[in-house]
Amino acid sequence: MTPALKTDELIDDPSTRVIVCCGSGGVGKTTTAAALAVRAAERGRRTVVLTIDPARRLAQALGLPELGNQPRKVEVDGFEPAGELSAMMLDMRRTFDDMVHSHAGPQKAKEVLTNPFYRTISSSFSGTQEYMAMEKLGQLAADGEWDLIIVDTPPSRSALDFLDAPQRLSTALDGRMIKLLAGPAKAGGWGLRKIVGAGFSLFAKAVSTIVGGQLLADASAFVQAFDSMFGGFRERATRTYELLRSGGTAFLVVAAPEPDALREASYFVERLAGESMPLAGLVVNRTHPVLADLPGAKALAAAETLERSGDSPLAAAVLRLHADRVSIAGRERRLVARFTKAHQGVPVTRVPAMPSDVHDLAGLRQIGEQLSAG
């Protein structure tokens, strides 16, 4: 029998310090994260929710005009939690800037921040968003202001890329191309020629053709300024990675009862297991439970009888709707059963589909109650 995911026990446990919601796009991760945060705050936790979703649904649902790169306390009419709730949205560039300031002296930070190559990679380098998410999580944990941090991750498989981000950035900055770029200043201006040897001219011409001569110079200057700071970056990322693997962290995989979403959920579960990350369970959003104990076939037969007699067309329509609902619910049960068979022991909770989009605290509270119901 599949165990029930008890989210109230999870958020009430003082040893739970971080909850990470991950899953494919469009399955309700942001709503799930916000609903858990509201419920945790109302049950006495000092909670902050971090969204990496650029859409502004979280701010709107919490009654805030906007979210920034620093936590903002939620203070709206009708919300008087026993604990406290703050919310924020990751600003990748500002987080990178803050990180540079924290790891460098004023002059070195100025060299990095004004470098055109830095301005490019701080907003578009592969893996930067995930690395900055790790950095911001680490900052929030180090602050000690909150006893529960809830993270809403990017959509699709990139939701787990922040697990790889420190190693990817480390590999990139320790790679041969970066060493070539850093070479000139480290060897009195001749390092690059010495490393490449007789092929220097061909190398320089090829790289300049690809990235442009000025960008090549900017990149070399950036690496020289950045190199002394990278050790601190790597240390912070390592500490955050260990935080994610600790007993105080819980991963919630969020899915919809659809084949693609549950296939992605299986990937997340397997990836988390491979990384020894603590999985709390699966949240299946937008399910369609049957509201009456009437088999679909009987409902259809009754609807056909009413239609032939011409009596009560409204009742016939309701019976047909019920039969459709039974069919949808059966399909969803089979899909979830396939997942639970492949991942035995993973706790599951189901959240019924809402009649309309969640856009306020009342809706988030309702989602929170459904999450706790198992």
Q: Please give the number of β-strands.
A: 8
Output the CATH topology of the largest domain. Rossmann fold
The oligomeric state is single chain
Q: What is the number of independent domains?
A: 2
CATH architecture of the largest domain: 3-Layer(aba) Sandwich
Shape: elongated
Largest sheet: 8 strands, mixed
Class by alpha and beta content: alpha/beta
Radius of gyration: 26 Å
Instruction: Assess the beta-strand content as a share of residues.
Output: 5-15%
Strand order of the largest sheet: 3-4-2-5-1-6-7-8
- What is the mean predicted local confidence, pLDDT? 82
User: What would you give as the CATH superfamily of the largest domain?
Assistant: P-loop containing nucleotide triphosphate hydrolases
Share in helix? 55-70%
- Tally of separate helices: 17
Question: What sequence of helices (H) and strands (E) makes up the elements?
Answer: HEHEHEEHHHHEHHHHHHEHEHHEH
Pfam families: ArsA_ATPase (PF02374)
Protein name: ATPase
Organism: Kibdelosporangium phytohabitans
GO molecular function: ATP binding; ATP hydrolysis activity
Account of the 3D structure:
It is a single chain. By secondary structure, this protein is of the alpha/beta class. The chain folds into 2 domains: 7-289 and 335-373, P-loop containing nucleotide triphosphate hydrolases (Rossmann fold, 3-Layer(aba) Sandwich), CATH 3.40.50; 296-331. Helices cover 57% and strands 12% of the residues. It has 17 helices and 8 strands. It has helices at 7-12, 29-42, 57-61, 92-103, 106-113, 116-124, 128-143, 165-174, 176-186, 191-196, 200-211, 213-227, 230-245, 259-274, 296-309, 313-342, 361-373, and strands spanning 18-22, 46-51, 72-73, 84-89, 148-152, 249-255, 279-287, 348-352. Strand 6, helix 14 (259-274) and strand 7 (279-287) form a beta-alpha-beta unit.
